[in-house]
Amino acid sequence: MKTPDPTEFRHALSRFTTGVTVLTAAEADGTVAGMTANSFTSVSLAPPTILVSVMQGRTLKAIEAAGMFVVNVLGAGAERISGHFAGKPVPGWTPDFAAFGNYVGLDGALANFACRVQRRVEVNDHVLLIAEVEHCHACEADPLVFYGSRYRRLAA
What is the pLDDT at residue 13? Predict the structure, then answer.
């Protein structure tokens, strides 16, 4: 069997429906670094623990310097926010942020998980972060989902 090429691999992965999250972390100067991520999962309920896959770059540097970050689960209609943090910033537009103690997350997210990094595992061009959830908040609304390399909404 041959190893799939990147295009084939990406296409096959696109058949797995995921929610859309944005990871946020405060930088030393107070600005907020963030990135869109769909590799997010729960690991343990006691203590509450999650895992995220973070690509090398500004957001990872901010998370590692602070030792903490927020996972923001996006609701339906938040494509603009997702795109902004996926490297397609909207000129002149800044999302609304909210403070959760010492954490900074996205205001109006479907759910927020304020996390403290426990472990770091390097895997190729990404780093897996295992983190304990110190605070979470959720509201009732439809999620933004990603399938077939496109944003989707749940059907009634």
Answer: 87
Q: Does 77 map to a domain?
A: yes
| pLDDT score for 101 | 86
Domain of 31, in residue numbers: 6-153
The position carrying tokens 């496109």 is 150
Burial-class residue 134 by CB neighbours within 10 Å (0-12, 13-18, 19+): middle
Tell me: cis bond preceding 95? Omega within 30 of 0 counts.
Answer: no
Q: What is the pLDDT of residue 71?
A: 98
Instruction: Determine the average pLDDT of the residues in 56-77.
Output: 96
Helices assigned H by DSSP within the chain: 6-13, 58-66, 79-85
Report pLDDT for 20: 96
Q: What does the alpha-carbon distance between residue 30 and residue 32 come to, in Å, rounded to a whole number?
A: 6
